[in-house]
Amino acid sequence: MPKKESKNSFEQSLTRLEKIVNLLEQGDVPLDESLKMFEEGVLLSKECMEALNKAEVKIKQLTKDLNGKLQLTDFEE
Questions:
Q1: Which among 46, 21, 47 is positioned nearest to 34, based on CA atoms?
Q2: Can you state the angle between helices 31-62 and 10-26, rounded to 10 degrees?
Q3: Which of 33, 41, 71, 77 has the most neighbouring CB atoms within 10 Å?
Q4: What is the pLDDT of residues 9-51, one digit of tens each?
Q5: Taking Cα atoms as reference points, which of 53, 58, 59 lies closest to residue 73?
Q6: pLDDT on residue 1
Q7: 14 contacts 48 by C-beta, under 8 angstroms
Q8: Do 48 and 13 meet the contact criterion of CB atoms below 8 Å apart?
Q9: Residues paired with 70 in a beta bridge
Q10: Residue 44's CB: how many other CB atoms inside 10 A?
Q11: 43 contact partners, CB below 8 Å, separation of at least 6
Q12: Cβ(26)–Cβ(61) under 8 Å?
């Protein structure tokens, strides 16, 4: 089965995932619908993790010094 490309941003996927978790935690969703929502949640979770991993790689690439060594930098909020 080909991988489904997400058209949602990271933030949209995370918001939908949070909504699914909240609905499933309430326990009011019928079993069939719960399974569909769980499956969607797993896919959204994977998409979010992939996006975070890509962001981490990009940050590491951007923080390399001129000698190609990784420079750890504290990020201030």
A1: 21
A2: 150
A3: 41
A4: 999 999 999 999 999 999 999 999 999 999 999 999 999 999 9
A5: 59
A6: 43
A7: yes
A8: yes
A9: 64
A10: 22
A11: 4
A12: no
Q: Are 22 and 14 in contact (CB under 8 A)?
A: no
pLDDT in tens, 53-71: 998 888 777 776 656 676 6
Query: What residues are paired with 64 via a beta bridge?
Result: 70
**Residue written as token pair 């079993």:** 31
Residues 70, 63 contacting (CB under 8 angstroms) = yes
For the chain, how far is it from start to end, CA to CA, in angstroms? 41
Backbone angles phi, psi at 75, to 5 degrees: -100, 125
| pTM score, whole prediction | 0.69
Amino acid present at 60: K
